[in-house]
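Hi all, posting the design record for the shared folder.

TITLE: backbone redesign
STEP: 1 of 1
STRUCTURE INPUT:
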């Protein structure tokens, strides 16, 4: 439920902010957290902040999330200073409480954090051009590059097995068995679609287990709408939504941007004839990503770039289907059937990727 203005004001004043609270409005199209854009007034100058509630259904340990965020954003800041002239908009910047903490709990046990609002930039739900795709993929690659030398210890796993596709498959099978929402009978073709591809689900996890591809620090939620693009220059500015930054595979991040950027339609588009993999966008993603990661990717990571696009698309489709069967308990939904529509777009995209796999592989 949306907060009242008085509640928003009370929460933001727990952080060190400059200015008087004017208004807070729901912001963005995230599927998990609750986000508000806040306007404050400081001597006639408008200041903007982002205030966000961590979804504790998804993130069971918010303090582990915030510890990662603190470490990662500090490390990124050091890198950015070395690489860019304009630094203020190149990473999320957390506000602090007077005691120096980066989060607070409200009276209902909800965990909140606040960021400086990054202005004159936006994220895209649907990527419009190959040029945008190139910039976005560069930003993802640079993010991975910048975190290669993050000092020990290993980051917290904020959602265990987040990209463990076989586990996601098991969760789907459990949801089918339990059929809590009585919806299994309506999704026969979708279940068949997954089962035909079940053998492929463990490929990346197996490569990791046998030591053929390395664990890295990855973002793990690299859909286009988690990357900010500068309005003026069109350059990629930074990655946002850092809650899932943790140990992972470089291929998860590349795969997820293939999933979200190559599709010209919305994630919950109901007209599936509009959904498909745009090859020219894929080609731009490949170029942009390799531009930043070419020096550190191993041959096995490189070879699996096309497969990662297919696997992560299938995996997120499996998650949408599972949530549909469980009665829409994880992803935010605005209408009945939205998770099923989301699942169907993902599976249509998987088919489209399969058809173009030879061309994708030829780019290697
Ligand atoms: P969710 O986890 O729900 O996806 P995000 O962290 O991605 O939440 O935030 C939701 C949206 O809010 C983003 O897509 C972006 O448009 C906007 N946003 C988040 N943080 C900032 C920021 N610091 N500056 C500007 N916009 C932001
Ligand atoms: C969620 O939070 P948001 O909207 O950026 C989800 C991702 C999914 C994505 C699908 C923590 O991302 O894993 O790929 O929806 N985030 C979490 O749109 O589960
Ligand atoms: Mg997001």
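Okay, here is what came back for every position:
SEQUENCE:
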């Amino acid at each position: 439920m949306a907060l009242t203005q008085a509640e928003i004001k009370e929460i933001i004043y727990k952080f060190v902010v400059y200015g008087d609270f004017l208004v807070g409005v729901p912001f963005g199209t995230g599927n998990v957290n609750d986000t508000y854009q806040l306007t404050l007034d400081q001597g006639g100058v408008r200041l903007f902040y982002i205030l966000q509630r961590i979804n504790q259904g998804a993130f069971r340990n918010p303090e582990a999330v915030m510890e990662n965020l603190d470490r990662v954003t500090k490390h990124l800041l050091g890198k950015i200073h070395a690489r860019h002239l304009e630094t203020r908009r190149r990473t999320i910047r957390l506000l602090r409480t007077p005691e120096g903490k980066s989060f607070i709990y409200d009276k209902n046990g909800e965990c909140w954090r606040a960021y400086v609002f990054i202005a004159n930039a936006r994220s895209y739900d649907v990527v419009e051009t190959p040029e945008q795709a190139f910039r976005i993929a560069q930003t993802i690659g640079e993010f991975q590059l910048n975190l290669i030398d993050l000092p020990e210890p290993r980051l917290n796993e904020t959602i265990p097995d987040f990209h463990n596709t076989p586990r996601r498959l098991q969760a789907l099978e459990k949801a089918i068995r339990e059929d809590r929402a009585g919806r299994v009978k309506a999704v026969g073709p979708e279940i068949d679609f997954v089962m035909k591809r079940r053998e492929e689900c463990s490929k990346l996890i197996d490569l990791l287990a046998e030591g053929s591809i390395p664990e890295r620090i990855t973002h793990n939620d690299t859909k286009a709408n988690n990357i900010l693009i500068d309005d003026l220059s069109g350059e990629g500015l930074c990655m946002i939504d850092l809650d899932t930054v943790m140990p992972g595979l470089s291929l998860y991040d590349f795969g997820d941007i293939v999933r979200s950027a190559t599709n010209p339609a919305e994630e919950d588009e109901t007209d599936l004839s509009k959904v498909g993999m745009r090859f020219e966008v894929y080609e731009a993603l490949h170029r942009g990503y390799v531009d930043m990661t070419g020096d550190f990717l191993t041959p096995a990571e490189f070879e699996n770039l096309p497969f990662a696009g297919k696997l992560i698309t299938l995996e997120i489709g499996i998650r949408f289907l599972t949530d549909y069967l469980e009665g829409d308990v994880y992803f935010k939904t605005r209408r009945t059937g939205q998770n099923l529509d989301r699942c169907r777009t993902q599976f249509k995209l998987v088919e489209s990727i399969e058809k173009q796999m030879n061309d994708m592989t030829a780019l290697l």
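COMMENT: The beta strands are 20-26, 34-42, 45-53, 104-105, 111-116, 121-122, 216-218, 227-230, 236-239, 246-248.
Let me know if anyone wants the other runs.
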